[in-house]
């Protein structure tokens, strides 16, 4: 089946000649980026509705907002593409890109802005780079939904899986607020998985529609690429079922690492047996996950939305941003520095975790539940404190 191709947007007249060339088994190939034959950019609202078409986005290139690569919307039969591919190894893909109807999307580098949509039977293979918030895996046919195969990279918040969609996550960093509708599925590939601290022995599928994955539930483990991962209700994750596939994680990359310069490359997480020290101008990105190990913050900055399971944390300087969630025996000792950035951010302690505040400033609302302990002997406590389900507060000093 051959569909008519529509192409629109800024600079379309300059693309009439280049888009006629072919290669690699495709009738038409567009290659965008530094040193590529079709220039550095495609404009906004560029649309492709045709078979045998490949688009390649390389470092230095950009594609504008609302890029659309799927079968012709007026086609009532909704016939899927044959031989259609989008490859991104660098550059920038604008907000609101849409892929569908048989397109294979391979992203190994670069940055894709928010609100990307992938419709069945398209496949998104994500191995590196960044995809922004609100990735939407949709269903357009009756045979199933779009598929995400993630082995690396960083995915923003608000991943949505509609009924029939599937995600297989073996590596990379996944943001918060996953919304998986009934009929969708998520596979985690790795080892050491736990549910509320109890081991999960794979391969196995847990149906949370029966057990209600929600308030106070925590799934943790290490993915095949060695990245720790945590799902929890505190992160507003809504997941009907999870399948755990056993694979040996990559070996730990370090045992003792210090970040003291803004140019130092920070790890995305910690595992048991690892020690990370942040000082000077060192920085750790948002969505840091630790399962075991030790985090020492003497200066620098730790990004927001860290999730910690069974981790030792020592804060004597610097800033740890809000949204920190501590589970299953995580112990935080704070003698100086700042935890939080602005009021309204949260710090949550669960499952026997603790914080011992001996100095510094907490600019967060924080909650202690499930026999977690809050001890304050000095320092400044801002925001609101909530105790529930056996949370404990011990105060001998400090400024509230």
Question: In words, what does this structure look like?
Answer:
With 400 residues, the chain is mainly β. Helix content is 2%, strand content 46%. The strands form four sheets. The chain has a 16-stranded mixed sheet that branches. Strands 24, 26, 27, 29, 30, 32, 34, 36, 37, 39, 40 and 42 form a twelve-stranded parallel sheet that branches. The radius of gyration is 23 Å and the shape is globular. 43% of the residues are buried. Residues 1-21 have low confidence and may be disordered.
Binned strand content: over 45%
Overall mean confidence score, pLDDT: 87
Tell me about the largest β-sheet: 16 strands, mixed
* Overall spatial form: globular
Counting DSSP H or I runs of 4 or more residues, the number of helices is: 2
Oligomer: single chain
Give the distance, in angstroms, between the N- and C-terminal Cα atoms.
70 Å
Q: Tell me the Rg in angstroms.
A: 23 Å
E-strand count: 42
Low-confidence stretches: 1-21
Helix-and-strand structural type? mainly beta
Q: Helical proportion? A: under 10%
List the helices and strands and how they pair.
Layout: H1 12-15, E1 28-32, E2 41-42, E3 47-48, E4 53-57, E5 62-63, E6 68-69, E7 84-93, E8 98-99, E9 104-112, E10 117-119, E11 123-126, E12 130-131, E13 136-138, E14 147-155, E15 160-161, E16 166-174, E17 179-180, E18 185-195, E19 198-199, E20 204-207, H2 208-211, E21 218-223, E22 228-232, E23 241-246, E24 256-259, E25 269-271, E26 275-278, E27 283-284, E28 289-291, E29 294-297, E30 301-302, E31 307-309, E32 312-320, E33 324-327, E34 331-339, E35 346-349, E36 354-357, E37 361-363, E38 365-368, E39 373-376, E40 380-382, E41 385-387, E42 392-395
Parallel strand pairs: 1-4, 2-5, 3-6, 4-7, 5-7, 6-8, 7-9, 8-10, 9-11, 9-12, 10-13, 11-14, 12-14, 13-15, 14-16, 15-17, 16-18, 18-23, 24-26, 25-28, 26-29, 27-30, 28-31, 29-32, 30-32, 31-33, 32-34, 33-35, 34-36, 34-37, 35-38, 36-39, 37-40, 38-41, 39-42
Antiparallel strand pairs: 18-19, 18-21, 20-23, 21-22
């Amino acid at each position: 089946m051959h569909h008519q191709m529509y192409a629109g947007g800024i600079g379309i007249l300059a693309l009439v000649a280049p888009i006629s060339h072919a290669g690699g088994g495709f009738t038409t190939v567009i290659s965008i980026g530094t040193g590529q034959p079709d220039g550095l950019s495609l404009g906004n609202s560029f649309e492709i509705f045709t078979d045998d078409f490949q688009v390649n986005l390389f470092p230095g290139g950009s594609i504008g907002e609302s890029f659309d690569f799927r079968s012709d919307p007026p086609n009532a039969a909704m016939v899927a593409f044959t031989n259609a591919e989008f490859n991104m190894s660098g550059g920038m893909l604008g907000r609101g890109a849409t892929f569908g109807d048989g397109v294979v999307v391979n992203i190994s580098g670069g940055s894709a802005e928010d609100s990307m949509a992938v419709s069945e039977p398209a496949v998104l293979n994500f191995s590196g780079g960044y995809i922004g918030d609100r990735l939407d895996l949709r269903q357009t046919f009756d045979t199933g939904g779009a598929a995400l195969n993630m082995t690396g990279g960083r995915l923003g918040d608000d991943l949505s899986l509609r009924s029939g969609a599937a995600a297989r996550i073996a590596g990379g960093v996944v943001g918060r607020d996953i919304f998986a509708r009934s009929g969708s599925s998520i596979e985690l590939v790795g080892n050491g998985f736990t549910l509320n601290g109890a081991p999960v022995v794979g391969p196995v599928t847990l149906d949370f529609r029966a057990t209600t994955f929600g308030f106070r539930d925590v799934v943790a483990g290490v993915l095949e690429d060695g990245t720790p991962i945590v799902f929890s209700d505190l992160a507003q994750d809504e997941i009907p079922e999870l399948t755990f596939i056993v694979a040996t994680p990559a070996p730990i990359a370090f045992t003792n690492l210090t970040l003291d310069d803004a140019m130092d490359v920070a790890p995305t997480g910690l595992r048991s047996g690892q020690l990370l020290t942040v000082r000077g101008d060192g920085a750790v990105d948002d969505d840091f996950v630790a399962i075991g190990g030790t985090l020492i913050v003497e200066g620098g900055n730790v990004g927001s939305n860290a999730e910690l399971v069974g981790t030792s944390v020592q804060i004597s300087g610097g800033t740890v941003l809000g949204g920190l969630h501590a589970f299953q025996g995580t112990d935080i000792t704070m003698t100086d520095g700042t935890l939080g950035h602005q009021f309204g951010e949260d710090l949550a302690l669960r499952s026997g975790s603790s914080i011992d505040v001996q100095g510094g400033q907490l600019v967060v609302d924080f909650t202690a539940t499930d026999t977690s302990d809050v001890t304050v002997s000095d320092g400044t406590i801002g925001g609101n404190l909530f105790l529930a389900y056996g949370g404990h507060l011990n105060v001998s000093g400090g400024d509230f």
